[in-house]
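Lecture notes, part 5. Sequence design as translation. It can be helpful to think of inverse folding as translation between two languages: the language of shapes and the language of residues. The source text, in structure tokens, appears below.
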């Protein structure tokens, strides 16, 4: 698969006042279904990564991003898909979290993230969080 087919994804690592991270479980029918993830979604044409992040977190989690900064960028090649994860740390937001797409979700301390199965592309995000 050519790199032009790589899916560009804006990912939000949302941290609450207690230092817990928001994660949700992918629906079983989706790519990497049944695994936990940090919320986000595809960056659309003519949209900045920050705009995509804000839009996706509003649509998925009912949150309005007030403050976020780039955390890391990850490229990962699955056998059936290539992804570019543009990962942002969200440290200020408004709204009451609810998973708008019906997935399970929870707030988890960083040290407990290893207890959840994440897609391989998400492992470097966990490593960055655990080194902070």
């Amino acid at each position: 698969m050519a790199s032009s087919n790589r899916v560009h994804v804006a990912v939000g690592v949302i941290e609450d006042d207690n230092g817990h991270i928001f994660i949700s479980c992918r629906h079983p029918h989706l790519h990497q279904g049944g695994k936990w993830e940090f919320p986000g979604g595809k960056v659309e044409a003519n949209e900045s990564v920050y705009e995509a992040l804000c839009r996706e977190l509003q649509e998925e989690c009912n949150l309005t991003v007030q403050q976020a900064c780039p955390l890391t960028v990850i490229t990962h090649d699955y056998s059936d898909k290539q992804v570019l994860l543009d990962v942002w740390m969200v440290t200020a937001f408004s709204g009451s979290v609810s998973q708008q797409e019906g997935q399970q979700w929870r707030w988890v301390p960083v040290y407990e993230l290893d207890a959840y199965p994440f897609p391989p592309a998400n492992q470097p995000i966990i490593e960055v969080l655990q080194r902070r």
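The translated text above is only one of many valid answers, since several sequences can fold into similar shapes. The beta strands are 7-14, 20-25, 36-37, 40-42, 64-77, 82-94, 105-109.
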